[in-house]
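Pasting as-is:
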Amino acid sequence: MEFGVRDEHSLAVRRPPMLGESLKSFLLRLANVNACKYKTLVKHLGFGPSTWFTPGSASESMMYTALSKVLNVSEQALLEILRTPSMKDLWIPSVIGTSEMKVRTVRACLSCLSEAPYHRQAWQHAMYCVCTKHNEQMIDCCPHCGNGLELDFCLNGRCHDCGSHMSDGPVQVMTVPVWQKEVFQGAQSRELLQSLLGMSMVAVRPLDLFTSDIRVRDMRVVEVMALMQKAWNLLNSYTARQTLKEALNRRWHEVNQVMGEELPLTLYREATALALANDNASDGELDAPVFESDSREFDIIKSTKRFAFLCEGASTRGLVKATQLMNFLGIKPKDFEQLRQAGVFIQINPKAAKKDALYCLEAVARQFSKLIRVDNVEEGYVAYDEFVPVACKFISGLHEGRVLVDIFNCDFPTQLLSNQKGTVIGRLYVHKEAFCEKYTECDIYEYQTVPVTFLPGFFGTQMPNVRAALKSVFVQKVMGFDVLRAKEDIPTSALKELHDNYLILNKWAYSHSKSKTKCLCALKRAKVDPLVRVNEEHCNSFEIYPKSAEQVLLDRYDELAQNYKGRKRRLKSEF
């Protein structure tokens, strides 16, 4: 590397970087030759002493700019020497499996250091566990005292703690693992690296019910090698994945008989989704330990799994996440929250964040066993998905969460198809007559007033239509005042008057399972005009008719069915 002409920004002593040298190693050597401390040099360049300079990060790019000024060279010239061609495709910002793979510890190859004492950038990659030049396992702690290495060890060859020289340390020769060779193939191996990392989150605790998010960059060399070998076997071996499936089935045999395999086989399905087409890996031991102790595993595992470890008396292998339960049930978060508040599902870590909420699978299975399972649905039952969500829209104050609580409390008849796959809601059927008897609108008349938010369910239309209807002269006359202007709750006496003395067409059509379009046509032919008609943007029309209009609809009752194909008869009023 040739330096440019000196200027007022130039360092007193300029030195070129070594091929493939890590940025921090180069900065340390520059500080030594300029007879200053590392933090002094970094501060002079505009950075703090604790900056990581992760390859591919913004701080690294800014450091290249600063160094180009004090060394009088171009940024491109620095990049060409510091980052070797094999490393360029591995350090890319914001790409999973690249920039966050920089290890926080110092790794070294003793043979490489004996040839040239500086720290290589390749050693910063978490997957670089065996030196490809010398077939030598990387070390991350002193062979004599066992303490972690400092960067000074790579420059002067001595341990920062015990002072022993690197030439006294044993060298462990081994073949480069196949997964390391595949990962360091350049840009084409980036997708493989992401798959391997995903599988490693399955492999770290393969008999659990959800994956473990792990800090790969905090792991030691031997830990990474053990974990990635397990992940590689699962990634490439069909036999290894079948062994995982059989182990999970044995563990959850009783739960499978009640709930099926949906939740217990979560990790197996994730492993299968990540798996490669080939089958060329050794099976290995499925439950071989990766970490030397539970406390070490606790340090590496993060997020929800960490909360699982904190739960006293609860085995992490029997816990499921709230998101898993919601997906299994096929319900929304707000409805699941009502189930939790009602005590149907008891969270074992109530102080944790919602995303880290955990539940015991065996307790969930006990609740699930209350549902009656059948091979064929009896007459009078309708699909939950087709009936309940619509009913909740037309019954004031009724929410799906409340219905689900009553279902798990066995408050009205339901049946669950056992020979059908899918979510619980997708297989659930409710007794229509029993449902209609249990949930009626008369409950709201027990209160003197209700909020405006009850009206979409009462009128059977969307809120924009409700607001437009409340502005009409007719509704204001029934209410006795302008509700929107007064910003007061709705008196239930006025709602009862509307319900008893007028025809709310949306609700009538729903409760009688008739086509609203056909109802409108019948009333139009009978020349019955609505008292209120609104049709706001993005809303279906909403009408209120005189009570006498109901007789017109009853006279044509059969013709108003959704799929009626019989002969239509004319009324005298139409001539």
